[in-house]
Amino acid sequence: MANDKMKIGEISKPRFEFRTFGQDFTEAEYRMSRLSTPVPEKVWERSSDETYIMSRTNDNNNTKIRDGKMDIKTFVTEKDGLEQWNPLMKAEFPIPADTLRDDVYPAFQVEMPSFDQDEYTMDEFLQMISDHPDLQAVKVSKQRFGYMVNNTICEVGNVLINGALVVTINSESTELEDILKTMEDVGLTGVENINYLQCIKRIIGWIDKDLAN
Questions:
Q1: What's the structural domain count of the chain?
Q2: Which of 80, 72, 70 is nearest to 17 (CA)?
Q3: Taking the chain (213 residues) in consecutive chunks of 10 residues, what is each chunk's mean pLDDT?
Q4: Among 38, 39, 130, 177, which is most exposed with the fewest C-beta within 10 angstroms?
């Protein structure tokens, strides 16, 4: 196990992540909770309402809106079946048209719309998304329970995706071996690793593939 201790809520070097989605991870969640070291009370349980912007032509940039702010992460690499993502940009609404033109729509990898305003509110931006044939805004509500196993930041979450309930479980760290050890300890070795983009596309029918269970 790595000497540098992970701390929930603190910035570290880019992390690798295992995450999966399904209907029931009761046994893995039980083991995760029993193996967890104490975590800060603020991450015992967290809830949020978010909007993910899905693009038919993009699987490499993860765009979501939470608390009136846009957050884009980009895929970096995959090692041992684990994914690494880095922040690409953050922006608050109203967003300048130049930011949409230079940063946001290139991340979607779709045809660029015309911009006839200097800036756009969140409602105006979401209307642009609704009008685009290759984009869709998806409402995601999360109830997350935080743990720490083998010095990896873990969570189990109940997630509503446009009203469809799924369960997610994950482990993330800067150290690959710590994540792989956690997956083994909680019984997730061999379970498919997918990210939120892939899960949401399956839920809304853009990918014809089942979740882990």
A1: 1
A2: 80
A3: 53 84 98 98 97 97 96 96 94 97 96 96 98 98 98 98 98 97 98 97 97 96
A4: 38
